[in-house]
Amino acid sequence: EKGVDPQLAPQAAALATELLVELAGARWVGHADVHGELPTRPVIRLRPERVDRLIGLETAVEEQRAILERFGFDVAEGEVTVPTWRARDVTREVDLVEEIARVLLDDVPFTLPVRRAMFGSLTPVQQLRRRIEDALVGAGLAEVYTPSLVPTAAEPDGLTLPDPVGDQATLRTSLLHGLVESARRNVSAGSEGLSFFEIARVYLPRGAELPDEHVRVGALVEGGYRRAKGVLEVLYEALTIDLAVTAIARPFLYPGRAAALEEGWLGELAPALLEGRWGAFELDLDLLLAGARGPVQYEEVIAFPPVKQDLAFVLDVGIQAEAVFSVVREAAGSALREVRFLSDFREPPISAGKKSLAFRIEFRSAERTLTDEDVAPLRERIVTTLARAFGAELRA
């Protein structure tokens, strides 16, 4: 960086001559000084106030001059002449400041860096995504990342690459295949109690046009339909969305354990797809955003004990439990705090085509302790409403 000082050549030659004469018996006969134009010493303007500003320390002009002169610089009336041996690395005013600073650095006070205020916030989609991730991780699921390209056999209706370099040549239209493959590999490795989720894009073909890209959240949990529905209830509660399911039939889902939602689907995977009992769901992020409410409004914890009652109704097999619970909530009003499923019984003495649906209802007031007499009218209203809506008969 500093290089060799060209002005040192005469001194070096004189020293070499002296050594030759003294040690080797040589005889000096004269000298010749042949060289091109030597570089001149740079002259740099130095402003004392700028030195103070850059270092962060007030120093006297005399102190600045003394430091530079110790290093071989000539200082006169705001201008500094650089010595020949520093002409290559000291070319700017800031270089002179650096020379002064390396002597005064220990005296510079410690200060925190100045930080200008920064304004910014997450978009609604980003906020929703974080709420989903927090809810699913809190429910015991681990996030995974799977390839967007899948085997063509797994997505026969998807967009396929014209010149694939491997078996994975088709853009996925669902997250399910990647989750199933992740589960299969982990099961083969001896893992148990697996629960995965993924938030990623799917690509839906639109003929000759570019595909529709949708961000979806998919999950796969070991434990079957009830386990998956429990995770889904945790998620919907975190997003303040009312969960409503309707029975459907899908070839990859176990018969009788498949449901449709406004935002996607839920079900237990058919054994042919993955050995064991596995529950799964897949939801559209845009639809979740449309249904999610604002920040959760917390209420004071109710100190009064609840009144719990178990009810069982005989009704048609085709009537879904969620539809019954929705009617129960509407009939009971705000005093009803929870409806919990207990059993679905279809054996004798229940008639063919009928089932006995049992559930627990919980009443609680924020003002006082409720008695059985207080909830009796609400219970009777539930019985009457279910009889009118579904032809349900109270069994117990």
Structural account:
The chain has ten helices and 16 strands. It has 396 residues and is an alpha+beta fold. A hairpin with a 2-residue loop joins strand 7 and strand 8. Helix 9 packs across helix 10. It is elongated, with a radius of gyration of 41 Å.
| Strand line-up of the largest beta sheet | 4-7-8-12-11-10-9
Task: State the domain count.
Answer: 3
The CATH class of the largest domain: Alpha Beta
Distance between the termini: 95 Å
CATH superfamily of the largest domain: Bira Bifunctional Protein, Domain 2
Subunit arrangement of the protein = single chain
Q: How many DSSP helices? A: 10
- The mean pLDDT is 90
Question: Helix-strand pattern, N to C?
Answer: HEHHEEHHEEEHEEHEEEEHEHEEHE
CATH topology annotation of the largest domain:
BirA Bifunctional Protein, domain 2
Q: Any idea what the shape is? A: elongated
Q: Label the structural class.
A: alpha+beta
